Amino acid sequence: MMAAPVEVTKASEVHTNTGQTEGMIRQGAIIDKSDKICASVMIARPHSSSAIHHHGEQDTVVYCVRGRGAVVSEGGKKRQTLEKGDFALIPAHAEHQEVNEGDEEVEWIITRSGRVPVVENLDGWGKS
């Protein structure tokens, strides 16, 4: 079986035409190139938070590149902080919110199980 070719996305090719959540900038990096995985960059401006959302059937791995942010989950009851070098796993359908209460931007690399990232914004915890 012949393997697919290696593909590189240059920083200048990263784009914002992916699913968005208010308060966050989501930039597609590896989108629509593999049936099993996609990757993007998420930037949270200072003193911002995303809408409450989930990623449908997709499991998500988060890697913190810079800054200090948090993932809020479990109906708003659980808050977990990520700093440079930390990872998080957000299971499929897990409602959550990204939060940056600091004075500096937060940058995360997001990898999801799926060809194109799914973002399903909610009207609140437990509300589709």
UniProtKB/TrEMBL annotation:
Residues 42-110 form the Cupin type-2 domain. It comes from the Eukaryota. Keywords: Metal-binding. The keyword Kinase does not apply. Pfam families: Cupin_2 (PF07883). PANTHER family: CUPIN TYPE-2 DOMAIN-CONTAINING PROTEIN (PTHR35848:SF6), OXALATE-BINDING PROTEIN (PTHR35848). This is Cupin type-2 domain-containing protein. It comes from Lepraria neglecta.
